[in-house]
What we know:
About 3% of the residues have low confidence. The chain is 41% helix and 17% strand.
Amino acid sequence: MLELPDLPRSLTEFEQRFGDEDACAEYLVGVRWPDGFVCPGCGGGKAWRLESKSWIYECAHCGRQTSVTAGTIMHHSKLPLTTWFWAAYVMATQPNGISALQLQRELSLGSYKTAWLLCTKLRRAMAAPSRNLLSGLVEVDKTEISCRSKHDRAAGSGSSDLGKLVVVGAVEVQDLRLGRIRLSAMPDDSAVSLRAFLVSNLAPDATAQTSGASGAHNASARVQRIFSDLKVWALSVHHGLRRRHLQSYFDEFVYRFNCRRNRHAAFPALLGFVAGHPPTTYGMLVSPGAKV
Length: 292
Ligand SMILES: [Zn+2]
């Protein structure tokens, strides 16, 4: 994780620190090339910044031009870096994040689609740390969550399209405190799907504790609390989650939860994942079978 001495500790401090494109670009350069510029074409380390175009480097060896956002999830984005940074800061550090609709209003973005795409790309980057598997004693259980389709205004509106989806959750139990969590939208309620979740989210030597296996009434009390918070967030901030993008909302919820004891580090860490995540197009995010 990048350590910088001037990490903002409030939204006001953030806006002072990252108020213009140059401040954001300069920070991004430090995130992408902490040991100095490296040309993605030839690996050369010598380059100069073009005076005519802002934050584009030309390799002294092969002549390739590289922008500070090239090859990252922000590639070809028409949005200013200040917009990306503001959205990343709010989504990473504010207790409830922000909905695409709120973001569109706050930043006066041209369309809901632009705001939605920005949120969705950031959620993609938030899924990156989930490669680190849960370990030790891990409480696991399932629940059902109500979804809304594209055309429902909100879950609970009485629409017949309202569907329920099985969600499995896991939480590390560390000296009676909660550790990291994981949430996954399940294709079905089968033992095979549960097994697949355990294999991809728990370390091989972790001990899974489920309510069914132990027979104890409160064996999953902690994970039930997570489910409860998730459902409140889904309804209050997003007015219900859409089935198709359920996992990406879970990734956001999990990211913030797992960073909750170190909120100020959540933002630079997210920017690191944003800078390290390959470009993602709208088509990739909405195509059938897209994993977002
Ligand atoms: Zn080069």
